[in-house]
Design brief:
The protein is of the alpha+beta class. The relative contact order is 0.10.
């Protein structure tokens, strides 16, 4: 025979479950339509959880779909624009290369090797990297929340239209933009203690004539064994792109020294 406290707890649980199921049905009529055909039950539950926590108010539609996942345009309950990044879990072939960016990072010492756990760690890693970038003053999306394979960030753009990628929009003054970008790379390295590792015209946005660095899930700490090789790759990619635009780029070795904080001026 159950005691009164157990009966009360069970009644409360039933009531909460009813409220959650009712809200879920209400959400499925609109917001969940845009994701339910792509993602699994655990992801849908995760989106619901972020709605229940008042992190996400509405999800309006896909703004980018790639091999790693999808990015949705959403709004908070207060109406602020959000970028909601959801990583694939079931068909994530790209996850095979993730561990080399996770291993050697003291923030993630115990990572289970099953696919879903790796994706969840990857999501957390991007969130933490964005936090470090924000604290250092890097021009990048502001991290808001994460849960499982879902990352919520500030939206770079306006009215659901994302800011263009650098490859899509040549800056009005390429040389000035190049110098601004190098300054952001220096902030990322010396302030956030991070190396992007995959920086190119594909993950730099142009917003209000300034560079916005995003997609930093693979970014590693400067203490990581691969950091030197990755910072050189970033510099090579950036210099190669701006050289094509006719910019007189700075020698790669000088850029590396400056990005790492080893020189006061960059000539």
């Amino acid at each position: 025979m159950s005691d009164p406290e157990s009966i009360e707890r069970e009644a409360d649980a039933i009531e909460r479950r009813y409220e959650e199921e009712s809200l879920m049905l209400d959400k499925r009529s609109e917001e969940f339509k845009v994701i339910e055909e792509v993602f699994d039950r655990l992801t849908l539950e995760g989106v619901y959880k972020l709605m229940h926590r008042k992190t996400i108010g509405r999800i309006h539609g896909v703004i980018k779909a790639g091999k790693e996942g999808r990015i949705y345009w959403g709004t908070s309950p207060e109406g602020a624009e959000l970028a909601i990044k959801i990583y694939y879990t079931a068909t994530a072939d790209f996850r095979r290369g993730m561990m080399k960016y996770i291993e050697g990072d003291p923030r993630f010492r115990r990572v289970r090797r099953d696919p879903r756990s790796i994706i969840y760690t990857w999501t957390q890693k991007e969130f933490k990297n964005l936090q470090l970038a924000e604290e250092a003053g890097v021009n990048s999306p502001r991290p808001i929340a994460f849960y499982r394979n879902i990352l919520v960030m500030s939206f770079i753009g306006r009215d659901g239209v994302p800011a263009p990628l650098l490859r899509e929009a040549t800056p009005a003054d390429p040389e000035a933009f190049y110098r601004q970008l190098l300054q952001q790379m220096r902030l990322l390295y010396t302030g956030a203690r991070l190396v992007h590792g995959d920086l190119s015209e594909y993950n730099i946005m142009v917003w209000e004539e300034a560079p916005v660095i995003f997609d930093i899930s693979q970014a590693v700490l400067t203490a990581h064994p691969m950091s030197d090789a990755l910072v050189r790759r970033d510099i090579y990619n950036v210099n190669t792109y701006f050289r094509r635009l006719g910019v007189e780029v700075v020698d790669a070795e000088k850029v590396e020294l400056w990005v790492k904080g080893g020189a006061e001026d960059l000539h």
